[in-house]
Amino acid sequence: MLQITCPWCGEREGVEFHCHGEAHIARPENPAELSDAEWGDYVFFRKNLKGVHYERWTHDAGCGRWFNAVRDTVSDAFIATYKPTDPVPELPAEYREAGKK
Q1: Cα–Cα distance, 31 to 42 (Å, whole number)
Q2: 65: pLDDT strictly greater than 90
Q3: Stretch 39-64: mean pLDDT
């Protein structure tokens, strides 16, 4: 069973959570000035990386709050979870090294 650690509630079963895609995507400052192609890129295109990925999650069956997670999409291992107001955590050495290859 997949276990995920909610920053507020602690470790819970994965069925209590829902992934909402890539984290740390900044909304354009002047969206009215974007071309249709630029707006389409912002709305629809994401990195979808193989390996370490920063994602937005909700604890739907628990506190209902949003949080961010660092997850390895190859192994499905959660490296870290953190509140949206917290700084991005530093990756453990084994994940930093894997990203350099």
Answers
A1: 10
A2: yes
A3: 93
Domain hosting 58: range is: 3-26+36-98
17 within domain boundaries: yes
Q: Which residues contact 3 (CB under 8 A, 6 or more apart)?
A: 11, 12, 13, 14, 78
Longest dimension (CA), the chain: 47
Number of domains in the chain: 1
Specify if 31 maps to a domain.
no
What is the 3 state secondary structure string of the chain?
Answer: CCEEEECCCEEEEHHHCEEEEECCCCCCCCHHHCCHHHHHHHHHCCCCCCCEEEEEEECCCCCCCEEEEEEECCCCEEEEEECCCCCCCCCCHHHHHHCCC
Q: What's the pTM? A: 0.84
Contact (CB, 8 A) for 23 and 55: yes
